[in-house]
Amino acid sequence: MTAGSSTASRSGLGSWLGEHAGRIVPPLVVLVVLVGLWQILGQQGAIPRPLSTPSSMVNAFAENTPLLLRSGWATLLEALGGLFIGTTLGLAMAFAASRFIIMRDILLPIAIGAAAIPLVALAPIINNWFGIANPMSKMAMSAVLVFFPIFISTTRGLVEVSPGALELMRSYAVGETEVLRKVRIPNMLPFFFTALKVSTTLAFIGAIVAEYFGGTSEVIGRVVITAMFAGNFGLGWAGILLGAFAAIVAYLIVSAVERRAIPWYISLRDGEA
To answer: Which of 80, 128, 153, 170 could serve as 191's disulfide partner, Cβ 3.0–4.6 Å?
Structure first.
C-alpha cells in the first residue's frame, strides 16, 4: 500500500467516524456507564446473584475459552444452517404466493397464525423429530423461526407494488417476467433485507433454545443451562453474551450487504438523497 492510499484510507475512516459519531458515541457511553454500575452494584451485593458481574463473566470466559469457542462454533453452524434453509424456503414460497392469488390467500393467514406459536412448544417436538443430538434439529428450529418473517415480508414486497408502475410496464406490453425483474423484485428488496436482519437474530435464538432441550454438551445452549444449574453464573452469562455477540455480528454483516445491494433505498431511508 502506498503512502497516498494509506493517507486516503485514514482520511476516509476519519470522515466516516465524523459523520457517524453522533450515532456511535452516545450508545457507547450509556453502555460503559451501565456496565460500570452493574459491576459496582454486583460487588456490593445489591443485585441478585444469578446476574453475576461483568468481571466474573470475563474471568469465566478466560478460564473456559476453548470450551466456549468450540460451543460457539457449533451453535454458529446450526444458526447459519437454519438461516439458509428458512430464507430459501421463505423466498420460494413468497414468489409462488405472489404469482398465484389463491395460494397467497391460503398461505398468508396460516403463516401469520403459525408464527404466533410459542417457541418453547415447538423445540421439544422438533428435537424428537430429528433426534436430540442431531444438529439438524437445531437448524430446523432456526429455519422455522426464519421462514415466517422472510415469507410474509417478501410476499408483501412482491405484491404491494405501485399501480402506476405496473400500468406503465403494461402500456409497453412488457411480459410478466420483465415486470417481476424490473418492478416487483426491486420493490421487494427493502422488505426482504428488513426481514433478513430480524431473521439473523431469530436464527441464533432458535438454535440456542432448541439446545436447551437437549443436544451435545459443547453447544452454547447446553453450556449455559449446565453452568446455571451448577451455580457457575459467570460461565452461563459468558455463553449468553457469546451467542448475542455472534448474532450482532451476523446482523451487521447483513446490514453491510443491504447497503451494497440497495444503496438507493438506504439513501432515501437515511435522508441522504
So the answer is: 153
The DSSP call for residue 47 is S
- What burial class does residue 7 get, using C-beta atoms within 10 Å of its C-beta: 0-12 exposed, 13-18 middle, 19+ buried? exposed
CB of 195 closer than 8 Å to CB of 71: no
What is the chain's percent helix, strand, coil content, to nearest 5? 85, 0, 15
Domain containing 171 equals 50-270
pLDDT number for residue 197: 93
DSSP 248-265: HHHHHHHHHHHHHH-HHH
The torsion angle over the Cα atoms of residues 88, 94, 97 and 98, rounded to 10 degrees, is -140
Taking CA atoms, 68 is separated from 82, 97, 217, 221, 241, in Å, by 21, 42, 11, 11, 11
Query: What's the structural domain count of the chain?
Result: 2
Contact 251, 162 (CB under 8 A): no
Instruction: Give the pLDDT confidence score for residue 81 in this predicted structure.
Output: 95
Domain containing residue 171: CATH number: 1.10.3720.10
| pTM to 2 decimal places | 0.79
- 58 in the same domain as 43: no
